[in-house]
Design a protein that fits this description.
There is one protein chain. Helix 1 (27-35) packs across helix 8 and helix 6 (147-153) crosses helix 8. The protein is built from 18 helices and eleven strands. The strands form three sheets. It has a six-stranded parallel β-sheet. Strands 7-8-9 form a three-stranded antiparallel β-sheet, with helices on one face. It has a two-stranded antiparallel ribbon with strand order 10-11. The protein has helices spanning 27-35, 67-70, 84-94, 108-111, 116-122, 147-153, 156-159, 174-197, 207-213, 218-225, 259-268, 283-288, 290-301, 306-315, 326-331, 333-337, 379-386, 391-399, and strands at residues 16-19, 39-44, 74-78, 99-102, 127-132, 202-206, 242-246, 251-255, 320-321, 341-346, 350-355. It starts with 15 loop residues before the first strand and ends with a helix. It is α/β, with parallel strands linked by helices.
Length: 403
Amino acid sequence: MPQPIEFQHGALSDLRVLELGTLLAGPFCGQLLGDMGAEVIKIEPPNQGDPMRVWGRQKHGEPSLWWPVVARNKKSITLDLRQSAGQDVLRELVTKADFLLENFRPGTLEKWGLDYATLASLNPRLIMIRVSGYGQSGPYAHRAGFGAVGEAMGGLRYVVGDPSTPPSRVGISIGDSLAATFACLGALSALHYRERTGKGQVVDSAIYEAVLAMMESLITEYDKTGYIRERTGAILPNVAPSNVYPTKEGWVLIAANQDTVFKRLCEAMGQAELAQREEYANHQARGAHQRELDERIARWSAALSTEEVLDLMDRHGVPAGLIYRAPDMLKDPQFAARAAIVSVKHPVFGELKMQNVAPKLSLTPGGIRASAPELGQHNQEIYAGLMQFPPERIAALAAQGVI
């Protein structure tokens, strides 16, 4: 019987990732793998680095505040993949890797002689994770595809916002993050297959397809009924009551669209008879009378304080909560109890608060082992240590601007 592997820093601590991607769609996948313990070696252009190093909000003259999140748990080495010598180095690195993660425009690696067939001939167990706007095939594959375009093509942008306004966007880079998350799922599925067969493969995650995968029954509804979903603001059509309702001093989100939960809401409101009325008796009926039901609940909630509404919802078992912002999260006891937000040491900022690893594993929990690396911080560790390049080769590569 083989001896079990001891995982000291997460379930993936025996795996190595070469991350070639920039910005968010690829690097967020690397963040997820690193959070669960994988050794993520981020490969960046010399003297330049990932543009994310300077993206996002930052204080004047200080590093980006986004970079420490997406680059946490990673090691940084420099390597110019546009030079043939840099391509040769990558081929050597691939022999010691489990995953190669990239989000270049399709065809870029092939142009550099770094296609999967070539790399797999050096390491048949290699799993190549490819994230792009439109995927690696099809008539649009060659196009530049940022997350915003994938969100629009995948159907999300059209349904986000108020019906009185043009299509809106979610306030985060959701298309990139979804594609990265699906890429991570695909990578772990490919890893499971490799454990059975010894064979690696390509994971092809397209931003528009990742967004499309989240669009529920949007396609099926149109296919069978001709219905096209429209922007509906704070509600989902025919799902009631589930909305944001006013209080004396603010807003509370209440989700009571299941029959038994709606009954408990009516009891909390002191209007138990509402649950028996024909127009509110079941899910379909409440959906047909959604507006008037929301107005009725709003009149009730507006007469109470936020605390009073939340207390009544809690006592009657009705899902409800506040619309949180960062300050609310930092003082909330639930976040604190589960360490959902942690402080991470940073060489410039001292300590940075950021979201912790999710999900939580009972036996092999992930964690944040280090903040974002400096550009090329781990060149010596990787090139001299892992790869055992002699000093004269490292010096020559540096002199040529390859590393």
